[in-house]
Amino acid sequence: MSSDNILENIFTPFQECINNEQDVREEIRNIMKDIEKPLREIVTTLQIIHRTHNGEEISAACFAARELFESVRAGYEKLDGVVPAGQYYRYNDHWRFATQRLCFLAALIIFLEKGFLVDKETTAQILGLHEKSRLHLDLEDYLMGLLNLATELSRFAVNSVTYGDYNRPLQISKFVAELNAGFRLLNLKNDSLRKRFDALKYDVKKIEEVVYDLSLRGLVPNRGEVVE
Amino acid sequence: MSRNRNSRHGKSKITVGEKGRQVLENIDENNRVIKMFLGFRKELDEKHDRYEKIVKLSRDITIENKRIIFLLHSTNTDIEGKREAVLDEACKRLKVITDENFKTIASILKDFDSYQYQKAYTSGLQEFIEALVFYQFLHSNKIESWESINKFFQYEQDGEKFSLLFPQLDFILGIADFTGELMRRCINNLGVGNVSDCFKTCNFVKDIYTGFLGIINPGAKEMGRKTYVLKQSLAKMELVCYNIQIRGSEIPKHMLVNVIESSDMNTEEDEGFY
C-alpha cells in the first residue's frame, strides 16, 4: 500500500468528516447567539424580584420575560432545522448550558406566577422544545435548572425579608423542601448533576435559617400555614 | 447545628429546619412533586443501567481484542503454514466480535441516540479497530477504508435493519494505537533476523504518521496525545532501521536487537496484552 493510498483512503475522508462537523458546529454556534441574547435579557428582567415587594412589578416582569421567551422559541425552532437527525447528543454541548438556564428561568416564572413547581412538559413548551423532530428537553438539563432555581430562591428569601415580605420565605421554604425531598429520591451517578445536587443542602439551610429568624421573632404570619 | 441553637433558646421549640421537617412529614406518595420525581427516577435509572450494560459489553470486547492482538504477534514466524493458521483464527474471532458483541450493543441502542452512549463503548471499539487493522496489515498489507469497515456494523435481524454508530474518530484513534503494535512487531522482526520486514513496517508507520500530521482537528485532545505516542514509536523504529543500516555488517542481526533495547528509549505507554 503506497503512502498515497493511506492518505487517500484513510485520512482524506477523515478530514472531510471533521470539516463537515465543524460546519454544523459553526451554524449551531451562530444560532445559539440568537438564544443567548434573550436569555440574558430574561435573567436581568427577573432580577427585579430582589429589589421590590410590589406584586404588580413582579407580574409585569414575568410578562416581559414571557415575551422574551418568544425569541427563545424561535431560536430553538431554527436550531431544530440544523442539528442532524439522531445526533442530539453529538452536539448538545453547544446548547446544554443555555437550556439549563432557560429551564431555571421558566421554573422561576411559574413559581412567581403560580407558586408551584413547573413540570418537565410545561418547561419544554415554554422553551419551545416540545414536539420537535430533532430536539427535545433533556431530563438532566431540566433537573439542573431546578437546582439553579433553589439557589435563586434562597437569595430571594433573604431579600424578601429585607423589604418586609415575611410570608415569602415560608412559601419558598415549603417549595424547596419538597424539591429537596424529590431530588433525594433520585439515584444520581457521580456526574455534574450529582455535584450540583450536593450543593442543594446549602440552599435549604440558608432558607431554613431565614425562616428560623422570622419564627424566633414572632414574625411568621399564620405560623405553620403557608399562603400559596 | 440546630441542636446548639435550640439549647441556647431554652424552652423555645423553634429550631432551624423546623419548616423543612414539617413539610417532609406531610409529604406522601400522592404529593405532586414526589410523583414527578418518582417518574424521573425511573427514567434516570433506565438510562444509567443501559449505559452500564454497554460499558460491560465494551470491556469484554476490549479483552478479546487484546488477546487477538497477542495472537497476531505470533505470526512473526518463518513457517508459512502456521502463519496462515493464526491469521485464519484471528479472522474468525474478529468476526465473532462484530457479529455478536457489537451486534448486542447495536440492538440495545437501536431506539436511542447512540451519541448519548458512545462513550460507553468507545474504548472497545478502538481496541477492535486496532486488532482488525493489524490483521488486515498482516493479511493483505493494507488498511481498509472507514467506509468498508463500517459495513461490518450494519445488521439485520427479523427483517429489521439497524447499525452501530462507528465514528471516524474512533477509527483514526484505533489506527494510532495500531502503530504501537507495529513498533513492537518491528523490534520482534529484528529479534528473529527478519530485516526486510523491519524496513517495510517502519515505512508503513511513516505513512500513517504523515497522515496524522496532515489532520487539522480542533477540539480532539485524544488525537494530540496519540499522535505524540505515535511519534515516539516511530522514532524508535527509525532508530532500529538506522542501526541495521549502519551496524548490520558488524554484528549478527539477532544481536542488533540488544543494541536497540539497551538504548534508553522508553516509549511503552500502551500496555498491550500480557
From TrEMBL, chain A:
<dbReference type="GO" id="GO:0005634">
    <property type="term" value="C:nucleus"/>
</dbReference>
<comment type="function">
    <text>DNA-binding protein that specifically recognizes consensus sequences at the breakpoint junctions in chromosomal translocations, mostly involving immunoglobulin (Ig)/T-cell receptor gene segments. Seems to recognize single-stranded DNA ends generated by staggered breaks occurring at recombination hot spots.</text>
</comment>
<keyword id="KW-0479">Metal-binding</keyword>
<dbReference type="GO" id="GO:0003723">
    <property type="term" value="F:RNA binding"/>
</dbReference>
<dbReference type="GO" id="GO:0004519">
    <property type="term" value="F:endonuclease activity"/>
</dbReference>
<feature type="binding site">
    <location>
        <position position="152"/>
    </location>
    <ligand>
        <name>Mg(2+)</name>
    </ligand>
</feature>
<comment type="subunit">
    <text>Ring-shaped heterooctamer of six TSN and two TSNAX subunits, DNA/RNA binding occurs inside the ring.</text>
</comment>
<keyword id="KW-0378">Hydrolase</keyword>
<keyword id="KW-0539">Nucleus</keyword>
<keyword id="KW-0694">RNA-binding</keyword>
<dbReference type="InterPro" id="IPR002848">
    <property type="entry name" value="Translin_fam"/>
</dbReference>
<dbReference type="GO" id="GO:0005737">
    <property type="term" value="C:cytoplasm"/>
</dbReference>
<keyword id="KW-0963">Cytoplasm</keyword>
<dbReference type="InterPro" id="IPR016068">
    <property type="entry name" value="Translin_N"/>
</dbReference>
<keyword id="KW-0460">Magnesium</keyword>
<dbReference type="GO" id="GO:0003697">
    <property type="term" value="F:single-stranded DNA binding"/>
</dbReference>
<dbReference type="GO" id="GO:0043565">
    <property type="term" value="F:sequence-specific DNA binding"/>
</dbReference>
<comment type="function">
    <text>Exhibits both single-stranded and double-stranded endoribonuclease activity. May act as an activator of RNA-induced silencing complex (RISC) by facilitating endonucleolytic cleavage of the siRNA passenger strand.</text>
</comment>
<keyword id="KW-0255">Endonuclease</keyword>
<keyword id="KW-0540">Nuclease</keyword>
<dbReference type="InterPro" id="IPR016069">
    <property type="entry name" value="Translin_C"/>
</dbReference>
<keyword id="KW-0238">DNA-binding</keyword>
TrEMBL record, chain B:
<dbReference type="GO" id="GO:0043565">
    <property type="term" value="F:sequence-specific DNA binding"/>
</dbReference>
<dbReference type="InterPro" id="IPR016069">
    <property type="entry name" value="Translin_C"/>
</dbReference>
<dbReference type="GO" id="GO:0046872">
    <property type="term" value="F:metal ion binding"/>
</dbReference>
<dbReference type="Pfam" id="PF01997">
    <property type="entry name" value="Translin"/>
</dbReference>
<dbReference type="GO" id="GO:0004521">
    <property type="term" value="F:RNA endonuclease activity"/>
</dbReference>
<keyword id="KW-0479">Metal-binding</keyword>
<dbReference type="InterPro" id="IPR036081">
    <property type="entry name" value="Translin_sf"/>
</dbReference>
<dbReference type="GO" id="GO:0005634">
    <property type="term" value="C:nucleus"/>
</dbReference>
<dbReference type="GO" id="GO:0003723">
    <property type="term" value="F:RNA binding"/>
</dbReference>
<dbReference type="GO" id="GO:0005737">
    <property type="term" value="C:cytoplasm"/>
</dbReference>
<keyword id="KW-0539">Nucleus</keyword>
<comment type="similarity">
    <text>Belongs to the translin family.</text>
</comment>
<protein>
    <submittedName>
        <fullName>Translin-associated protein X-like Protein</fullName>
    </submittedName>
</protein>
<feature type="binding site">
    <location>
        <position position="181"/>
    </location>
    <ligand>
        <name>Mg(2+)</name>
    </ligand>
</feature>
<dbReference type="InterPro" id="IPR016068">
    <property type="entry name" value="Translin_N"/>
</dbReference>
<dbReference type="InterPro" id="IPR002848">
    <property type="entry name" value="Translin_fam"/>
</dbReference>
<keyword id="KW-0963">Cytoplasm</keyword>
<keyword id="KW-0460">Magnesium</keyword>
<feature type="binding site">
    <location>
        <position position="130"/>
    </location>
    <ligand>
        <name>Mg(2+)</name>
    </ligand>
</feature>
